[in-house]
Structures are given as C-alpha cells and as structure tokens.
C-alpha cells in the first residue's frame, strides 16, 4: 500500500508541475511547497522503508543491532533532503538531471520489500535481508542522489524519433522488464536508467 501511495504522490508531483507550466502559474512559493511534498513521498517514506528492512534483518536477540542500526536507513532521507534543497538552487537542471531524481530513488527503495515478498529467488531474499547489503544500498542511494552525474530527462520537447531516441529505448526496455518481472523490474529499471545515462554521457563526450 505504501508503494502505491508513493506512486500516486509521484504522479501528482509530475502533473502539478505540468499544469503549473501549462497555465503559467508557477511561483517561487510553489517550488518550495513542491519540495516539501517531495520530502514525504521521496524522502521520509523510503527512509522509513530502509529503517524497517534493517530492523527485520537484525537478529531478534541482538539488542544493539535492533535498537540503533535500523536508523542508518534514514541516511536516505538526509540524502533526499539535500538533493531537493540543492535542486531548487541549481540552474543546470532545467532540461536534464544531475544525480538521481528523488522520485526514481524512492521507487527503487519502496520496491525492495515487494521484491522480497514476490520473488521466488532465495538468493534475492538473502541479499535484501542482509544488513551489509542494505548498508551498501543506503550509502549508494544517498551518493547517487547527489552525485555529479548527468542523467537524461524523460521530458519530450520535440515530437520526433531522432530527438527522443534515448527516451524511447529506455521506455521500451522498461516496459518489457515490467511485463516479464513485475515488481522485480522496478529496481532494475532505475539501475538501467543510470547506466544508460552514463553510456550516453560517454558517447556525447566523443
């Protein structure tokens, strides 16, 4: 249910900006309110999910691990907070992104409990219930949110295949993954998005 509510929040997040631009009613106050709303769906929610995963990965008789270690999950919330604040003052991110957008990161984190629940793979279950793996995911999440890595945007400005080839390839492969793997596809799609952006950056430099 939390996953679906976050998806709904991201949906509204996209369309409030879309309609604000359409009706030319955007304002500095709206920008700040947008980021505050994002902090819930893309900061607090994934941070709490990581907290819960850490809590469930701890041994029930390990008091220290179950009392303190789960709070490491809220590093995701701190990374999201910094990302959102920095995004508001970064003029470079009008047509593309630098670092992973918080909605994409939130979908990645929020999908992990669903992958655990619906995947039949014992290896995936053991990985996502291992506190060292969860620590790696948490730190990578906070890093990639604020990394100086240009990532392409899905915004369509010109309605032709040539200018949107990268977006079309991404959407087609994402759709195939979603049809084949269901919830397990969500984190794979986010990883694919980052890797595709990096490959695209390499070709642009050449």
From TrEMBL:
Entry keyword annotation includes Transferase: yes
Pfam family, one: CDP-OH_P_transf
InterPro entries: CDP-OH_P_trans, CDP-OH_PTrfase_TM_dom, CDP_ALCOHOL_P_TRANSF_CS
Domain of life per record: Bacteria
Keywords: Membrane, Transferase, Transmembrane, Transmembrane helix
Transmembrane segments: 63-85, 97-119, 131-152, 164-181
Keyword Transferase assigned: yes
Family: Belongs to the CDP-alcohol phosphatidyltransferase class-I family.
Name of the molecule in the record: CDP-alcohol phosphatidyltransferase family protein
């Amino acid at each position: 249910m939390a996953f679906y509510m976050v998806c709904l929040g991201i949906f509204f997040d996209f369309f409030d900006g879309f309609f604000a631009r359409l009706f030319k009613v955007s304002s500095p106050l709206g920008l700040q309110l947008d980021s505050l709303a994002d902090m819930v769906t893309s900061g607090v929610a994934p941070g709490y999910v990581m907290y819960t995963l850490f809590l469930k990965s701890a041994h029930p008789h390990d008091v220290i691990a179950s009392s303190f270690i789960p709070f490491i999950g809220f590093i995701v919330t701190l990374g999201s907070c910094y990302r959102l604040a920095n995004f508001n003052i970064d003029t470079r991110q009008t047509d593309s992104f630098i670092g992973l957008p918080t909605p994409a990161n939130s979908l990645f984190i929020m999908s992990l409990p669903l992958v655990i629940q619906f995947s039949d793979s014992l290896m995936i279950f053991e990985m996502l219930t291992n506190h060292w793996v969860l620590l790696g995911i948490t730190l990578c999440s906070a890093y990639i949110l604020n990394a100086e890595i240009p990532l392409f945007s899905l915004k369509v400005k010109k309605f032709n295949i040539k200018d949107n080839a990268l977006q079309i390839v991404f959407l087609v492969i994402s759709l195939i993954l979603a049809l084949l793997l269901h919830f397990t596809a969500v984190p794979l799609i986010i990883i694919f998005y980052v890797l595709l952006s990096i490959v695209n950056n390499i070709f642009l430099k050449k």
